[in-house]
Amino acid sequence: MNRMTAISPGAEAADPAALVTRLAEAARLAQRTLAAMPSAARAAALHLAADALRAATPAVLEANAKDLAAGKANGLSGAMLDRLALDDARIAGIADAVAAVADLPDPVGQVIDQSEQPNGLKFQRIRVPIGVIGIIYESRPNVTADATALCVRAGNAALLRGGSEAVHSNRAIHAALVEGLIQGGVPAEAVPLIPSQDRACVGAMLTASGLIDMIVPRGGKSLVARVQADARVPVLAHLDGINHTYIHHAADPAMAEAIAVNAKLRRTGICGSMETLLIDSAYPKAAALVAALIDAGCEVRGDGRAQALDRRVIPASANDWDTEYLDAIASVAVVDGLEDALAHIARHSSAHTDVIVTADEAAAERFLAEVDSAIVMHNASSQYADGGEFGLGAEIGIATGRLHARGPVALEGLTTYKWQVRGSGQTRP
Amino acid sequence: MNRMTAISPGAEAADPAALVTRLAEAARLAQRTLAAMPSAARAAALHLAADALRAATPAVLEANAKDLAAGKANGLSGAMLDRLALDDARIAGIADAVAAVADLPDPVGQVIDQSEQPNGLKFQRIRVPIGVIGIIYESRPNVTADATALCVRAGNAALLRGGSEAVHSNRAIHAALVEGLIQGGVPAEAVPLIPSQDRACVGAMLTASGLIDMIVPRGGKSLVARVQADARVPVLAHLDGINHTYIHHAADPAMAEAIAVNAKLRRTGICGSMETLLIDSAYPKAAALVAALIDAGCEVRGDGRAQALDRRVIPASANDWDTEYLDAIASVAVVDGLEDALAHIARHSSAHTDVIVTADEAAAERFLAEVDSAIVMHNASSQYADGGEFGLGAEIGIATGRLHARGPVALEGLTTYKWQVRGSGQTRP
Fold this sequence. Notes:
The structure is a homodimer. Chain A is α/β, with parallel strands linked by helices. Chain A has helices at 9-13, 16-36, 39-55, 57-73, 78-84, 88-102, 142-153, 167-183, 200-206, 221-230, 253-265, 286-295, 304-307, 337-348, 361-370, and strands at residues 111-116, 122-129, 132-137, 157-161, 214-218, 243-247, 274-280, 299-302, 314-315, 329-335, 353-357, 375-380, 397-399, 407-409, 415-426. A 7-stranded parallel sheet of chain A has the order 9-8-10-7-6-11-12, sandwiched between helices. In chain A, strands 1-2-15 form a 3-stranded antiparallel sheet, with no helix packed on it. In chain A, helix 4 (57-73) runs antiparallel to helix 8 (167-183). The first copy, chain A, is globular. The relative contact order of chain A is 0.13. Residues 1-10 of chain A have low confidence and may be disordered. Chains A and B meet through helix 11, helix 15, strand 12 and strand 15 of A and helix 11, helix 15, strand 12 and strand 15 of B.
């Protein structure tokens, strides 16, 4: 079955493609076991994994201390070190998240639709796991657990490839999870950790057509861009979250201000944060809106008309309309009506999340219909762009591509379907 | 809007990428018009297109005669010429198919699911068109009409790239359809015909990420393989239809014989035809089954045990188990029980359509659950693997990939979805 078993470990370390092939082939075999397990057994195994992770807290903290020391020595930024750092509470949170995914409803086996033809053939489309999913991620060690839990819950194998800066933390978390999963009957081969030292392993994963069914990159723009550029395997990813909030002339001023400030500043580093505020030229409280953003600590870069609203507004450059700041900076443009707002969004949106604030239902419905983004919102903050907030329980990511799954992708997005056809001897005339 | 308008026609002809870019950008703009049309208006426009095609029968026949003459001069095979040839009845059939697609239920705007969160946010997932779809096809001119109809019905623009051997036929069919579509309010730019003389246009389509949302190849294995190898745009495709029919020991002999002969011989050139017959070693009528296939005109290539069943069985080579004959040839293997059949299928199936014939419901259910193919059937001929037979009305193709859509892909597979979120001023805590 495994055409790589003849290769010695030494030769394999020198050949990342052979290593990835061996692990992916083993994962595919293990995935069959996983898919054949009853849903409750997969859930129970994930609870055991969560328990094992809780019990391994001291070992995980020790490993994490090594990564943090190496990160400091290597000059990682404070933000990077914060993403890397674990403590008792964070580990408990990671374990709780694994347990929460275990308790999510299982999409596998769901009947999507069914029909019967006049010739008596019965058709059912049922959800099945995708198969082998490659996860390529950066410094946050919680992804090791999140991705494992989501993949296993939906019956998928996961090839986990974390960042080298988190290598010890990822290994410790992975070892604990695997201990619990094995107790629960899930083969360890279903969730292999790919060595993070060798960057060539990423290239091997990206070109492993037929071995890996889908790649999910989790990390910064440069990682995702590399994955999208080089992958020969389908990728579920979003690049930018250049999200717009359009304040229509009929917006309630208090609501407009609360939504704009929340959308931009609640957390500036997440992909659902607002980057561009579009203010209708007929909106009566534009100056107060811009002042509120600036007073709340946001740098505002504006077009000519936005600069006229507040002398603290900095001139925007052409680039600003296509920039994901992920910081306390917003670009602000004044637009002439819904049509103009739709045109600006069509030109500059990254198709992640765009929002209209208005009391005019007809304008809202037109915006929701015509803005061609994964998520379109009326009278709500774009910071709600999150699988948990959508009631999906957890998400593997937010997809801005157009095929397979769009917006927050949770368990359903980690499944595909097959057609089951039941007959009684029909032959086709 | 269109950064290519400054290029002269001469320069553009020399630059296929510029031509494809210009046509795709114009198609994307036109697609917005199409998507904003009411469903009934898109249906009415397709009926006008079908009428215009019927009215253009003489012009289409004249164009087809040119292609046939060129094909004969260029030494096209009889099968290729047959695929290319049109007559009154075939043109009427093509027009009827366009009208039938016009009458299919429109998936666009369907609410997939909806929910409300405790904070009052309301979520709906609604189907929307994918956008711009590239169709790359070979000699059959009917694809020009089929693909146009399916794309337009679901609100998509279609970039049509037919084979050079059908250039005049495709142009004549396209001109007629566009005449009808324009009458119905569909912009001609939504369904451009890409020049078929220049092979570089195919390469330009395959790498047009961001301009083309999905490529559908329709044609032989070498075309599909080239598209899959070179595409940077998502591809909806199947390569082989290496379909198995497994005759379980508890199969009814009359049913087994009827299904095997129909699955192989009804039409040998379609992707749903059986290529490999697996006969259980405990099935009592194996010799009669093999004899029936051979007596019906099928060449049988078998493993040792199959050869022992009938002296007319030719020895199979290792390649035979992975070969799509598309001809009156079948490979036959004798297997030891369901487990062995599942293992053979897992090793050799192309994940298109696999069938079990048995009166044992438990064995059938296990086969339907464990065979990981797009279509799995119990007691029916694999020749039913067709969107029309599945009640989907028509199909753009049969997908053997795992993401987005699987098996027969019809209108629903030409849509994606977006999330509409309706609030009342919610900001995220």
